[in-house]
Every structure is written in C-alpha cells, then in structure tokens.
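Here is one record:
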Amino acid sequence: MIGDLELRIKTLITIRQKIQAYLIFCEIDSKVSVCSYMVRLQHLLKGIDGLLLLVSEEERFILETHLIKGMKWEFTIMEYQQRWAYDVGTDQRSYLYRQSVAIRKISRYIEKYSSKIDFSWLEDPLIDELSEACSPKS
C-alpha cells in the first residue's frame, strides 16, 4: 500500500503541468461544455499544490524542478546548489534520495490524516488517463 501511494503521488506531481495545460485548453475551447471535467482538473491542481506544501522548501524545489518542470537531474542539481550552496549533495543519488524522502513525507501525511481529510481525489481515474496520455510512446 505504501509503495503504491508513493508511486501515485509521484505520478500526480509529475503530471501537474499537463493538468494545468488541459484546464487552460478547456477554458478557451468554446466547444467544451464539460464543467465537471474542469472542476476535476481544478481539484487535482489544488490537491497537488496542497501536497507540495507538506514538504520543506528544498524538497519542494527538487519535486517541482525535476518532476513538474521535467528538468534533467544535472540542471536540477546545478540550480539547487546555486540556491542552497551550504547544502550540497554529493551526487545524483543524493538528490534522488531527497526526492523519495519528500514523497514519503507526503505519503505518511496522507496515511495519518486520511480518517480526517478526504483524499479520495487521489483515486480519480483522470490521473491515470492523463499520465498515460503524457507518457512517451515506445
């Protein structure tokens, strides 16, 4: 369960820009009259933004730069080191580890508060649909 939730969180964070793009396209498309679809997209964006607030600024930077913006690790590491020169990792594995720790923090929060907060939006099939649509075809 924990691994599945962490993978789900990583997938969701990774497709944030795609969700935002779909929402923009729906808003400008005069033919789109699917308000519920747009509401689902907005809820996903708000949910992702909420999840990102659960981690430190440094962890959020790694998640946003690498997963959301899709920057290569080399660029992510270089930008990180420029912002936080006092906190330099040794190699790419250090940053991969920091990314996984951040995702684990989010996962633990969800598990801890799932009886008080409705996280059912994490199970929206739209996440899988958008993730598959954004995946490179082999």
